[in-house]
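pls read this protein.

:::
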Amino acid sequence: MAGSGEPVVLKTLLDTYGHTAAIKDGSLASERLRFDIVDAKPVSNAFGRMAEHGEFDFSELAIVTFLQALAFNKPVALLPAVMLNRFHHGSMICRTGGPIDGPADLAGKRIGVRSYTQTTGVWVRGIYHAEYGLDLDGITNVTTQGGHLLEYVEPSNVVRAPAGKKLKDMLLEGEIDAWIAGRDAPALPEFRPVLHDAEAAAIAWFARVQAFPINHMVVLSTAVIDAHPWLPAELFDLLKRGKAAYLAELREREAVGADEAYRKRMLLEGRDPLPFGVEPLRRSLEVVIDYALAQKLIPRRYAVDELFDPRTRDLT
């Protein structure tokens, strides 16, 4: 514990993004804080270490993992700050020239996904259910991993792939019919998105639903907030400064990669591509809560305000 005048050192799990890079390299800093950064590649591999074991003081966390942590009364407090978000209409792929032509062909099929609780999978299944009528109970979810919360019991239509099998190979060999691959989708001619014009579908969906698909946010250990009540505001301010500098830079340069291209398009349209604050995030959180409930990931529909500790709810 830091003494008077000494900075508080936070054991931190945080990936490198445009808006976090300066915090991680120390060029954007607070005199009151120091970050003991733990690197994990990919960062999602360490989410269980926070959600289940409380290993970090300050941690990036998938929003669905947080919803389950809330359900199991884990001592973590959500900050209303997005680390990673992206459209997911193109995240489910199938074999080029195979039996799946579009969403209607997925009824009763076997769909691969790394983990049933993976946030990308929750968004994809939720969108396919709400927009294209996919019967979530009628599909079989073929997974290679369990979730981050040991207490969670998966539904009966979740099965494990054979040990050592890769979802890419299972899709090529016809052992699964589609794969919610997200960023893991290989750029091979053998694969294509299930939706033929996924980008246009995503833009139309966003215009109507008005939800940014949130993947990752950040949390604090409630114990560290108890010890340092000023900490949420200090961290939130630092994150906001990192975001402002990044978006100002992005406005003036070429986007790198699909995620930045989406952010820059939103930015130039006058929208905030990285919403911070409960109200800007409210609609997105409402949608992911509904999707998580429909997929039996949480026990009830939470109100958005329930997701936040009173000490983090009013950060704007």
In short: The mean pLDDT is 95.
